[in-house]
Amino acid sequence: MIFNRHMFRRAAIIGTGMIGGSLALALKKHGLVGSIIGVSRQEASLKTAVEMKAIDESTMDIHKAIQGADLVILAAPVKVILDNIEDISKHLRRGCIVTDVGSTKLSIVDLAEKHFPPHVMFVGSHPMAGSEKSGISHANADLFKGAACIMTPTAKTNRMARDKVKQLWTIVGAQVKLMEPAAHDEALAYVSHLPHMLAFSLARAIPEAFLEHGAIGLKDTTRLAGSSSKMWSDICISNYRQVIKAIDESVKSLADIRKAVVAKDEQELVQIFNQAKTKREILEKKING
Amino acid sequence: MIFNRHMFRRAAIIGTGMIGGSLALALKKHGLVGSIIGVSRQEASLKTAVEMKAIDESTMDIHKAIQGADLVILAAPVKVILDNIEDISKHLRRGCIVTDVGSTKLSIVDLAEKHFPPHVMFVGSHPMAGSEKSGISHANADLFKGAACIMTPTAKTNRMARDKVKQLWTIVGAQVKLMEPAAHDEALAYVSHLPHMLAFSLARAIPEAFLEHGAIGLKDTTRLAGSSSKMWSDICISNYRQVIKAIDESVKSLADIRKAVVAKDEQELVQIFNQAKTKREILEKKING
Asked: Is B247 exposed, middle or buried (0-12, 13-18, 19+ CB in 10 A)?
């Protein structure tokens, strides 16, 4: 049967930025969808997505886009994803599978489970790909190759939908891990949101006149400060409890260093730095391994 | 005349780690010295330095090493450099030029100017090369190629010595900038010492169980936490006033973010992140350009 040639007949990608655009390209590359319609509030982004052949059709009308889609991917910044969920909930096709690519999961999953009717199957995803860059021009079909993708199914998640979305991520090259939405948000606050906050804080704290003396170490440590301000504002606000907790932990850690510096306590400083080095070595092994 | 073949007849390098070892290799590569004697408190380091042909002779006796040296390079961690200055001051050959590679300058320059007799010519240097790695095994002759080297001559510095050391750094590939010792320490507290403190604090603050979820962003942001604990303890203590000031500025910057997250103030967060992004863009241009 012709409908069986692809995993999905028609995908709607809501948000054609770097992640949405890359996923569109990957879905096409691996023949997972019959056709893709892209939605954006930015006409230029849609135009580029069509030119790059990431999407077959474009529209700025989200309701039009989801008509007849059996796969809907919410790929806008977190706050827009939350708006999109409320906006599309009554207009989704029966049997439609919906997933998202948001960097926080609890608020998105909670809202989707609250709003989507029983005939719509939602499962949350967070592909940990991308970089400080943003926009369709940075999209590529291999972005997810070797990247982790955390999926956050709950007791309410349809198993078939979960397995199909898992298969989709696996085929585009991601390594899927399953987590509870709350556990995802707590872990990501430390390993992703906090490093962004520290990079922003560091870059902002340096007097401009001193920047010329910066070298590669500073460049690496502040790289994440090049990330989208709007996107990170959304992430912080949507995961505020965990982000605040992680910021407080890092300030506590900095305060320990400050105290030892004031006391000129070499032994204490070496011990603090060694604790950090041990964690860093574990991380190095996990990321390389 | 045979003595004119090299810029220096005999160099003593006190500390044969990554920087000392690399400088020894670079001096040999560019034919700047007749012979090099290396000093270390670690026999294994000396043995490797000889095997790598970084040094011609080795000794664990610092007084023996500086006998007859017309160039002495202090290349140990900052605290050891301070000890070395007191230790060697009465034993240096007349007309000897002394420089160092320490990451802080005010305490080193002050001590050298206080202790060295008038017939010894000291000028402080800080080659901004190296990485989170340490030890002679990471040494290479091209380490200083394209790197900045901040020299901190003062009103008391002999001009000939300053020019000769400047020439030395230039020949091994570094771009020399001149700064006051205090101005160096203030700027470096922000562009180097603070990023290290934030990397250590971040790595240390992350619960071990979450490390497996870390990706490339976390890896970059914590890379400096792999640096030598002993070396960084020395740097913090020797530049404690400026390090504390920089830590306080970064905490202030984090507190601004925290406050905006608590208030869920999107506009404020975007503004803070944009301020950071602007600084980061300046840095990106300076480092690439």
From this structure: buried
Q: Which of B151, B248, B254 to mutate to test the interface with A (most CBs of A within 10 A)?
A: B254
Last residue of a domain, one of B136, B158, B179: B179
| B67 shares its domain with B168 | yes
For residue A69, what is the DSSP state?
-
Residue of B262, B59, B78, B275 whose CA lies nearest to B188: B78
What H or E segment, with its residue span, contains residue A176?
A: strand A175-178
Q: State percent of chain B over pLDDT 70.
A: 98
Are B206 and A217 a contacting pair at CB < 8 A? no
Q: Both A139 and A31 in a single domain?
A: yes
What is the rounded average pLDDT of the residues A50-65? Answer: 97
Token pair in block for residue B112: 């050298």
Q: Please tell me the total count of domains within chain B.
A: 2
Q: Where are the alpha helices (DSSP H) in B3-105?
A: 18-29, 43-51, 62-66, 78-88
Residues A108 and A116: beta-carbon distance below 8 Å: no
Range of the domain at B13: 2-179
Q: Please tell me whether residue A219 adopts helix, strand or coil conformation.
A: helix
pLDDT score, position A4? 54
Q: What CATH number should be reported for the domain holding residue A126?
A: 3.40.50.720
Examine the domain organization and report whether B117 and B231 are in the same domain.
Answer: no
- Identify whether residues A95 and A53 lie together within a single domain: yes
| Residue in B closest to A209 by C-alpha | B187
CA gap A276, B194 in Å, rounded: 15
Is A90 exposed, middle or buried (CB count within 10 Å of its CB: 0-12, 13-18, 19+)?
Answer: exposed
Which of A187, A188, A230 comes nearest B270 by C-beta?
A230
CB-CB: which of B210, B264, B280 is closest to A203?
B280
pLDDT tens-digit map of A80-113: 999 999 999 999 999 999 999 999 999 999 999 9
**Structure confidence by residue, pLDDT tens digits, A5-26:** 799 999 999 999 999 999 999 9
* Residues B217, A224: C-beta atoms closer than 8 Å: yes
Cα-trace Rg, chain A = 21
C-alpha–C-alpha distance, residues B76 and B45, integer Å:
12
Which of A78, A126, A143, A190 to mutate against chain B (most B CBs within 10 Å)?
Answer: A190
Residues B249, B160, single domain; the answer is no
Task: Please give the structure tokens belonging to residue B101.
Answer: 């590679």
List of chain A residues whose C-beta atoms are within 8 Å of the C-beta of residue B126: none
β-pairing, A97-100 with A8-14?
unpaired
If one compares A132 and A116, the residue with the highest pLDDT of the two is: A116
**What pTM value is reported for the model?**
0.92
Query: Which residues of A are less than 8 Å from B233 in CB distance?
Result: 266, 269-270, 273
Q: Are residues A41 and A138 in the same domain?
A: yes
Domain containing A206 — which CATH number? 1.10.3660.10
Q: Do residue B144 and residue B218 come from a single domain?
A: no
User: How far is it, in rounded angstroms, from Cα B172 to Cα B124?
Assistant: 17
Cross-chain residue pair B247–A258, CB shorter than 8 Å: yes
Identify the three-state secondary structure at position A129: coil
Name the residue in chain A with its Cα closest to that of B186. Answer: A210
If you average pLDDT over residues B91-102, what whole number do you get? 97
> A158, A179, A200 — which closes off a domain?
A179
